[in-house]
Every structure is written in structure tokens, then in C-alpha cells.
Amino acid sequence: MWRDEVRALSLALNGNDLMAMLQGVHGEGHPALWYLLLRAAYAVVGRPEVLPALALVVAVAAALLLVLKSPFPWPMIGLILLGHFFLFEYSVMARNYGIAMLVLFAVATYYPAYRSSGIALGVLLFLLANCNVFSAILTGAFLLFWLVDILPGTEFRWSRSLRHFTLNAVIAGAGVTVCALTIFPTFNDASVPDWSGGLSLKTLAAAVLNPAVRFEKLLYPPNVLQGHWRLPLETAGSLLLFGSTLGLVGRPGAFLAALSALIAFSVFFAIVGVGPGYPRHAMMWLAFLISLYWICWDTSNSIGVGSPEPRRDALSIVATLGFVLFIILLGLQAVRGVRDVQHAMFGDIPFSRSADFAAFLARRPDLKDAILIADPDYLLEPLPYYLDNKTYLMRQQRYGNVVAYTKKARLNLGLDDVLQNGRTLHDTTGKPVVILLGLKFGETAPQRVHSEGYDWTLTTTPEQVRTFQDATVLLHRFEPASSDETFDAYLLK
């Protein structure tokens, strides 16, 4: 289990009651639905394994909707199910993105029946807005689709369809409002990019015109965008992203919604500094695109009805080209999905070394009650899934299992500070102290200032390194890992 996964479980279980939990997640940066589901599941089972189990249940439910309710042919369904987002990001990775995919597929399933009656779609969009920040954007994009989709039949009058849409839009808008009130203002201020100098027009233009830069992990294998090939590959990627929306031209609302969501995502990624390293975010747009193709599957038979034949033929050609590009986009995800299966069967590098450390500690009865400290602090966040040991956050000088990425923390630590914290904890509690260090050094390490993100730094000097090594015993090196959760474990003498 990785820190961002377990962090959500820790937040969901904090507080003596539901209101206390909701107060605890206020400002975290994610809406509350995933925390509510985790807390409810844990209340029934009482085991931390509800975290991966719930993610898997959500993914299976989404797969069942796709298989049983979608209009797609079997080869296309297979291509979607083989995608990296389905096989790993929204199923194995226990985060709050799979629930958004499930809700999107439910919206696609029920849109034809409830487009003109009831509030089912409004309720689903309310839930969608509270899955994650990116799905809140998709809530607005879907409302755009719905509005444009019903306008031809309203003749721009205050019709029954428009009144029904407005009611559901109000419900969905309430969901977006609840999302915003939950995530703002954030207490993780050190993780927010500094745009005090303003956002340059060049950055915004690049985000709008060249979204492939922000959707890199959705499109390319690792380390492909390098050297002279970068520009042509980025151009091809952006054309693929834009082009994959063209298959929806038969339903102008769907085409506008897909295109608007693509641009909104790219701009949002540029503003908040998210993008290439986080494919699960970009894949939210892909799940939205799949749901729009789902809804519009039968539109191809009526493209350009009422238009002159040459225009109708041109629209049909454009839609066919767009659909082919959409299939290529799905195929790229399936290639990564096959690699996921290969890694699961034959790979020997775990995502995180937290499970290995927990197993190591379980073999040491003398460390059963050890207090754990780490630099960076976030190395401690996955451990509550496996261990009951107390964890102490040095940057905030408190016990806890959820790190606040705030500028009010101790931003600058030296290796001697780490050692002093360990000694203080040992002296005051009488318990052994185990120190996890993401930094690896040798006896002759020069003086260095190591950046750890979030404005955190760790300073080391040769003298500090020698003092630290004299005062500790290296228990084990937990490496390698496919994430940054690899570290050395030391026991304070």
C-alpha cells in the first residue's frame, strides 16, 4: 500500500464521530465521498483491508455496468477492460478515482431514461462532483452536454425539458458547492504552486493548444518525450486527443463537452502543477469520453440528418476518423494494461517498501513497541495499514499518521535534528526508536542541502553523518521500489 492510499483511510477513521471526521478532512484537497465510504466499510468489517477491497468492489461494479449495459461491441469492451486505468489506476490503486468512473458509467446508463424525468441524474452528478476535484470539472462538462442536447427540442422556450434540466442542474451545482466547501481553504499550503507573479499567457496558450504535455502519461511510454522527437510526438499526441472527440460530432453537445473538458483539464493541470506524473488524473477525462461515446453510440445513424448530402458525408467521415482515433487512444491504454499484467506476474519490484518494513518489524519482538520517525515524514503514512506502532512527525513535532504539507511546519531540518528528536522520544518514553531515512549516504558524504518537496529540506554534513552512524544501527535497506517509498531503517542505540 502507498501513502496516498492509506492517508485516505487514516483520515476516514479519524474523529470520534462522523462530524469530527468531516471536520478533519476539510481542507485536505479531496471531497468527502471516498472518506464516507471507507468509514462505513470499516464500521462493518473493522479491518484495514477494506481499503483495497472497496476499490476492487467499485472497479468490478464499473466493469459489470460496462459489460451488461453498454452498447459497445465485445472487442471494444475488452479493450477498455484491458486499459491501464481499469487494471491498475482505478482498481488496484485504492484511491478516489474509481468511484468517479463508476458514477460516470451509471450516468451513461441512465441518461436516456432520465434525461426528461426524475432527479436521478442530478443525484448521480451530485455524487460525481464529490468523488474528486477532476470529477467536479466533469460534472460541469456533462451539464453542458445535457443542455446543448435538449436545446433543439426546446425552441429556446421555457419548456418542460428545460425546467427538468434546471432542477437537476441545481442539484448537481449543490454537489459542486459541497465539494468546494470541503476542499477549501486547504491546510496543505506547501503543496500549492506559487502563482503570485501571475500565470503567463504562454503557459495558458500551451495548455489549450498542446494538451499532450499535460496528458503525457496517458499517451506515451516512460522516457519517450526526449530529444529531437519531443515536438513531433507532442504534436501527434495533441492531435490524437483533439481528434478522439470528433467521433461525437453527431451530438454537438457531447462533442463540445468532451472538447471543453479536455481543455479545462489541461489548463487546470497547468495551474495547479499537476499533469505528466499523475496518469490517474488525466484518465478521468478518458473515462468521461467513454461515457459520452456510450450515450451517443446510436447517433452515427443520424449524423447530418436534414443537411445537404455532401455535408452529411463530410460529417460522417469526420466522425469515423474521430472514432478510429478514440480506439487508438484506448489501444494505448491496453498496451500499458498488458504491461501491468506482466509486472504482476513476473515483476519483483513493489510499488512501496512499507509492507516489507512491516514484515521486518514483525520479526523483531524487541521492536514491537518502537516509536517510528522518518524523514521525509510522509514515509510514515502507509505504515498504519500494517502496524500499530506510534509514528511521530518531526516536521510538526507531534504524534500522528497524517502529514500536513504546510509552510508552518519545520521546513529545514539537519541530520542532527533527526538524531535529537529520536533521543528525546527515547528518553521520554523509554521505548526503542526506529528512524526511516529516504536519504542514503556514506561516511564521507559532503555537506549538502537535500530538497524533499513541499519546501522541505534536509541538511547533512560529514560530521553529522558520522555522528548519526555512531549513534544508530542500520537495520536494513528497503529498496528498490517503483515509487519513491524506498528507505533505510536505523535503530537508535
Describe this structure in words.
The protein is an alpha/beta fold. It has 2 domains: 3-190 and 198-346, no CATH class; 354-492, no CATH class. Helix content is 56%, strand content 9%. A 6-stranded mixed beta sheet has the order 3-2-1-5-9-8, with helices on both faces. Strand 6 and strand 7 (456-460) form a beta hairpin. Helix 7 (98-114) runs antiparallel to helix 8 and helix 8 (120-129) packs antiparallel against helix 9. The longest helix has 38 residues, at 309-346. The chain is elongated and about 85 Å long.
- The sequence of SSEs as H and E is HHHHHHHHHHHHHHHHHEEEEHEEEHEE
User: Number of helical segments?
Assistant: 19
Give the overall average pLDDT.
91
- Give the helix proportion (percent range): 55-70%
Number of strands: 9
Query: What share of residues are in beta strands?
Result: 5-15%
Radius of gyration: 25 Å
Short synopsis of the structure:
This protein has 493 residues and is of the alpha/beta class. 56% of the residues lie in helices and 9% in strands.
Give the key terms.
493 residues, alpha/beta, elongated
Layout of helices and strands:
Layout: H1 3-13, H2 18-25, H3 33-45, H4 50-69, H5 74-81, H6 84-89, H7 98-114, H8 120-129, H9 133-154, H10 160-183, H11 201-209, H12 216-219, H13 230-243, H14 252-272, H15 279-295, H16 309-346, H17 354-362, E1 371-375, E2 391-393, E3 398-399, E4 412-414, H18 415-429, E5 433-437, E6 448-453, E7 456-460, H19 462-471, E8 472-478, E9 487-492
Parallel strand pairs: 1-2, 1-5, 4-7
Antiparallel strand pairs: 2-3, 5-9, 6-7, 8-9
Helix pairs in contact: 1-3, 4-7, 5-16, 7-8, 7-15, 8-9, 8-10, 9-10, 9-14, 11-14, 14-15
